[in-house]
Structures are given as structure tokens and as C-alpha cells.
Amino acid sequence: MQQQIFQDKTFTNSIGMQFVRIESGTFKMGSANANLADEVTADKEYLRDGDWDEQPIHQVTLSTPFYIGIYQVTNEQYEQFQSSHNQLRGKLGFSQDDDEAVVFVDWHDATNFCKWLSEKEGLPYRLPTEAEWEYACRAGTTTHFHTGDTLPEEFQKNVCESWYPDEGRSRGVEEVVPLHVGKTEPNTWGLYDMHGNVEEWCQDWYGPYDPQPQTDPCGRETGLYRVTRGGSHSTLLCYLRSANRIGAVPEDKHWYIGFRVVCGEIPDTTTYLPAPKTAMWSRDVNQESVVSTSQESAYFADPIPFVRIPEGSNGPLFSRHNHVPAIVECPNGDMFSAWYSCVTERGRELTVAASRLRYEHTEWDPAEPFWGPPDRNNHATSLWCNEDGRIYHFNGLSAAATWGPLALVLRYSDDNGATWSKPRFISPEHQLRHMPIASVFRRQDGSILLACDAVSGGNGGTAIWLSEDDGETWYDPGAGQPIPEFTAGKSGGWIAGIHAAVVELSDGRLMAYGRGDTIDGRMPKSVSDDGGKSWQYSASPFPPVSGGQRCVFQRLQEGPILLVSFTGSRKTPETMPIIDASGKERLVTGIFSALSYDDGESWTHIHLISDDGPDREIETMDGRPFIMGLNSAEPGGYLAVCQGRNGIIHLISSKQHYRFNYAWLKETPPSLPL
After folding, report:
1. Res. 522 pLDDT band, cuts 50 70 90
2. Which of 26, 30, 64, 227 is spaced 20 to 30 A from 316 at the CA atom?
3. Is the pTM of this model over 0.90?
């Protein structure tokens, strides 16, 4: 039977899947110039030259004919293998009919389907390699799509950067589109739905291209993400091009990804490229723990930039917009920071960068990529080190674009951040309450607390996630609660304000300050006495923060709680009075610190985060200048903080790294010069 099938141009297997023979051949893989000015919005113009990972164009030879499914695998076909998948039909409204592309299948599901089909029929079924997929999609063309340099309207399904199923931002049922296969014209080799409908899992681990000619390539030897191809509904057209590459965590499953099947043995000439070179933050990492001497006298160091990305960078990192950082001290004394890098915050290109400040060095390493399935929004990052030296990395992972449909991912490092575990889902559903905030700590009862935004907008609050088994399992104590009314004297199921900083009080209660949901014109304060199941709201004594700003809490080794926040809006800076050495009030603006010795009931030692010297210009987020001096400090940035074992407090904005100690925080700010 196998010999006869492999002589035919087409065949149909026992479960009704139709295949077409693809002859061997050579083609140019990749794209040097996508030239999609008419297809993308103005802030997406960086895609005119193609995505960075589609280059260099390289010659690929496929030495052996193979058969590939004419259509994407349907619900009816897949459920002959896994009947229980029927329960996922219509999840979030997608893929209800027999002849719609199957979705909510991960890479392992797709691979196991191929194994089952192989055993059933005695034929070598598998997923296509990335090279086979692009070769078959192009069908001899060299244009953006097999239809030419434009894609006909009938292929286009909900072309946008979708927020679905975020009720606050999506268009709801209008974004649920049919996924029936074979409803558009096939390419010249007879294949349907190669552009759009659903993404398709490929065999390969994702990794950068090499320039040399290759025969029967099968990607990298290992990696974090499996390749998907073809793009999908509910995305921009530039991600549907023949050359475009997307990737996903192999265990991820949602309404964007399905698959099609190849029949044919992997050729003997198949080659795997070695794993990519390690990033700078991973190289030459000292594995000896250090014991640093505490600085007893007042200490404040000049701020240094931790975001070091060359101007004009257009992938894999971007010089355009770098924001929302996290920072942690490694057991070896290094400082490690991660943040997102992008062109637009809602875009699929948003990825996560990292850098290392090596112990006793004065300059951060240049940034390199840290995390990010390609062409999926990775919003946002948090880092934390436990008492045994294990560093935790938390990240939100979007199904596509935007930070609405996020899953929650965890990785860890036991070697000072040199290597990291494979990603594991804390919560695999792509939904709200999954965007990490740089506020993680161990509670007195031993549990780990991670704060995450509960909504995608500027108001609506913050959730917390708790782990009582050192990060193995997690739960959201406020899940299922109705949206609270954030009013003084009221209570509700989560924290008032997004991007909330959380701290534990001496008696085990939790206290949080957030952005938005202001109360009486002040930053909202939330307190929970039941481990985050419910919160009571009141006004804090501090001005609210706004766009481009995030405050932080830190319980210092010395006992008091440290708050760092801003005197007012980043775009329209306001002033706030402080008491200086003269005993008089002085108006200041920008980032400030405050200490509380009574669990947030009162705050003292209010101080600008500044050297209090002559005015000088420094860069803030995305290269914008600000003046640091006696009366002004950085006006914006998403703050993150940690305290080193030597007592030095490390505070980062979206650009600068500040270092100071408790003795400096207690100092009275100087008075105006005479």
C-alpha cells in the first residue's frame, strides 16, 4: 500500500484526509524586504524591511518528495484520535463545526496525532519541517504571499491586533470568526489556507537562520519554542506572509494554532543546526557566592543606565521602546535585570531583554534577548531570588498581540541566571489577571506572593497569586470575585489600582498601593487581613501615579517599609513639599522615597531620589532627558527594587539604575544654598 501511495499525485487516507505530492526542489528561504508599507500601520513601519528573523535569505534543497495535507486538520479528523477534544469545540466561540480547523491543541497533541495515524495506517505521518512548510506555501513564488504581494480580501479574517476575549477592549462576538477549511483559493500546488485561518505547528525548534546552503534542514537541535507558520485570523497581514516565522511554547494551546500533516520519512540528509550562541548575560558567569561588606555611612551612587541597546536596533531587540523592568541580586553578587523591548506595546514583536551588572563592575553588559516566543506579545516580567539562591522568572505570554489574552509562565535558574529551566505554565489559560508586576516576596507563613494586573486598562485593579509549595502550584485567592467598587470604606476581591506594589505588614496583613482608581484625589491604599481574598480601600497620603509610572514597596532588612513613587504625572510634573535641613518646606518634583516604621500608618524621611547636586541632564525612558538636581528628579518610569545582602538598595526606572542605602534614606535633604 505504501509503495502504491508514494507513486500517486494525491491520495486520501482512511480518515478522509487528502494529501498532495510535493516534488523535491531548491528554493530561497526567508525574506530580505517585506515592503509592507500598505499593509501595516504607521507605527509598524519597521516591518517594511521584513522581520529580522527572516534573514538571511538562504538556499534550501529538499532532496525527497513528500506528501502534505491539502487542508488543515479538522475537528472531525482530530477527534477520531482524541474524542474528548469535542468538549473544546466552541471554546470562546471558535471552531464548532466538523470541517473547521482544530484548535486548542499544543505541539505534543499534534505530534501524538501523527504517531497515532502512523500506527493506524502503517505510513510515516509527521509535522512538516519549517523548510517544507515554506516551500509548499510558496509553490514556486517569491512574493509576500502565494497570491502575490497582496492578499485577497477573502483570506482576511478580523485583521487587527486583537484583545479578545478581554471584555473591556475587544469587540466581543465580532471577533469570533469561522475557521472552516478550504473556503479560499488554493495555491498552484493545490494547498488551501496557507495564509491565515489558523497557525500551523511545525516540527522544528525555533532559532536564527544560517546563511549557508542547506539540504533538508530541520531547525535547531534544541530550543524553547516550536515554530508555527502561516499566521491566523485576528492578526495583522504582515504576519501571514510566506516568509514570516512565529513560534510558541510547545505546551501552549489556544484559538490561534492548529496544524496540518506531512506523510513521508524524514530524509537521511536532514541536518540540525546547533543551538544558538549564548547571550552575554549567560556567558562567563561566576558561580561563587559572595559576602559583601555593608556600607554603614550614607551612600548614594550616580545613576547608571541598565538599558544598553544600540540606537536604530530593529530586532531582535528594539531601541524604540524599552519599559517595565524587573531586577534581582544573584547569589554571586551580580545584578540581573529584564524588561520588555518593542516598537509598540500592543505589538506581536514585543519581547524580553536582559542584562547583567557583574559584581564590582561599574557598567551593565549590553542587553541581549532573554525570553519571548517570536511574534507573541510578552507582557510583562518579574524576578525574585529565594533564600536558597534560586532565581524565579515570571512572565505573561500572549496568544498573539496585546496584553489582554495572557497566560502566566514561570522559569527558574539555580546558577546565578546563567541558564534557565524550560518554561512552565502557572496558569495556561489566556486571560486577564496574568500580567506580572515586579512585586514578589516570601510571606511570613512561607508562601510566595506574586502580584499581577487584573485588567488591561488604566483602572480596575491588581490580583495576587500565591504558592504554598515553593512555586510548584499557584492559586489566585480573588478569582471569581465581581469587579469591586474602589471607594474609601468599601471592600472587594482585589487591589485598587493597576501595577500595584504589595508588602506584608508586621501582623501578616497585606498592604498595596496602585495606579488609577484614585480615592479622594490620592493614590489608593488596599489592605487585606485574609491573605488576599478581600481588600479594604482608603486613600493613601500620596499623590496618584499615572501613565509611564509605577511605584514600589520594599520591606528593608533594617525593618521599615520603603516606598518609592512620584510627585505627580510624568507628562505634567507636579510639586510636593518636603522638609529639608533648614526645617522649612521645599517644593520638589519627580521620584521620591519615604519610610514607614509603623506599617504604613505614617511616613517619614521623604527624599528625592537625587544626588541633591547641581542640575544636570540625564536620560529617562526611551532616551528622553530630565533634570536631576536639588529640586527635581526622574519624572517617570516603571520602578522595580531589591535590596542586596550588603544592604545596598537597587532601584531601577525604565532606564536608570539607582543605588543607595538605608543610612542615606534617613538623611535629611539639604537646604537651599544661600
Report:
1. very high
2. 26
3. yes
Report the alpha-carbon distance of residue 287 to residue 418 in Å, rounded: 9
Q: How confident is the model at residue 140 (pLDDT cuts 50, 70, 90)?
A: very high
What pLDDT, on the 0 to 100 scale, is given for residue 153? 96
User: Which cell numbers hold the place of 431?
Assistant: 486571560
* Cα diameter, the chain: 98
Task: Please name which of 535, 11, 468 lies closest in space to residue 264, comparing C-alpha atoms.
Answer: 11
Q: What was the pLDDT predicted at 3?
A: 53
Residue holding cell 471552531? 95
Backbone angles phi, psi at 47, to 5 degrees: -80, -5
Per the CB < 8 A criterion, the answer to whether 597 and 553 are in contact is no
Sorted by sequence, the CB contacts under 8 Å of residue 330 that are 6+ apart come out as: 336, 385, 389, 391, 416, 417
pLDDT over 80 at 15, yes or no: yes
CA distance 554 to 236: 41
Give me the phi and psi of 289, to 5 degrees please: -70, 150
DSSP 529-540: SSTTS-EEEEE-
What is the pLDDT at residue 669?
Answer: 93
Per DSSP bridges, beta strands 257-258 and 199-205 are parallel
Residue 97: name the closest of 158, 214, 182, 172 by CA.
182
Give CA–CA dist 542/551, Å, rounded. Answer: 11
Q: What does the DSSP 8-state code read for residue 269?
A: T
How sure is the predictor about 4, in pLDDT bands with cuts at 50, 70 and 90?
low
Q: What is the DSSP string of 342-403?
A: ESSTTSTT-EEEEEEE-TT-SSPPPPEEEE--TTS----EEEEE-TTSPEEEEEEEESSSSS
Q: Quick one: cell of 557? A: 532588612
Distance CA 241, CA 637 (A): 36
Residue 674's pLDDT band (boundaries 50, 70, 90)? Answer: low
pLDDT(572) > 90? no
Q: How far apart are CA 60 and CA 509, in angstroms?
A: 61
Question: Helix, strand, coil shares of the chain as percentages rounded to 5?
Answer: 10, 35, 55
Cell representation of residue 305? 543606565
